[in-house]
Design goal:
The chain is of the alpha+beta class. The chain folds into two domains: 19-49, no CATH class; 63-132, no CATH class. It has helices at 2-12, 38-48, 63-87, and strands spanning 96-100, 103-110, 113-120, 126-132. Strands 1-2-3-4 form a four-stranded antiparallel β-sheet, with helices on one face. The longest helix is centred in the middle third of the chain and has 25 residues, at 63-87.
Length: 136
C-alpha cells in the first residue's frame, strides 16, 4: 500500500521538464562560423604543419634607392602616357632617344605607327613595341 501511495503522489505532482534544444554552431567561417576564428584556426594549422617553405631573404633598400626607383617608374609611366596620347592623336610625340636609368627608350613615328625600342643597358635585353596610331 505504501508503494502504491508513493507512486500515486509522484504521478500527481507536476514535473517540470528541464530541457532545451540542441543547436550546432560551426567553428569554421567558411561554413557559417564566426569570422574571428580564422586567426586561431590558422595558427593551429601552422603549428601542425610539418612542411615549411624556406624563408626568403628580404633585402632592405635605403630611401635614396627607393626614391630613384620610384622616379624611374614615374618617368617611364609618363612616357607611356605620352605614347598612348600620341597614338590616339591627342598629343604630338617627337622622335628621339630617352635615357632613363638603365633603360634607353627610342621613339620613332613611322607612317601610321609609333615604333618604340626599349634596351635594358644593364642586361642588354631589347624589346620592340609597335603602337598603331588610331587618330590621324
Amino acid at each position: 500500500m505504501k508503494k502504491l501511495l508513493c507512486a500515486l503522489v509522484l504521478v500527481s505532482l507536476p514535473v517540470a521538464a528541464l530541457a532545451s534544444t540542441i543547436t550546432y554552431k560551426p567553428i569554421i567561417p567558411s561554413f557559417g562560423g564566426d569570422p574571428d576564428n580564422w586567426g586561431g584556426l590558422l595558427a593551429e594549422a601552422d603549428k601542425q604543419n610539418i612542411y615549411h617553405a624556406p624563408r626568403k631573404k628580404v633585402s632592405v633598400k635605403n630611401p635614396i634607392d627607393r626614391f630613384k626607383e620610384q622616379l624611374q617608374y614615374m618617368i617611364l609611366s609618363r612616357l607611356a602616357s605620352k605614347l598612348v596620347n600620341a597614338a590616339f592623336g591627342d598629343e604630338e610625340l617627337p622622335a628621339g632617344t630617352y635615357q632613363i636609368e638603365n633603360f634607353q627608350v627610342t621613339v620613332q613615328p613611322q607612317g601610321g605607327e609609333i615604333h618604340v625600342n626599349i634596351v635594358d643597358t644593364s642586361t642588354g635585353s631589347t624589346t620592340e613595341v609597335i603602337v598603331p596610331m588610331y587618330n590621324q
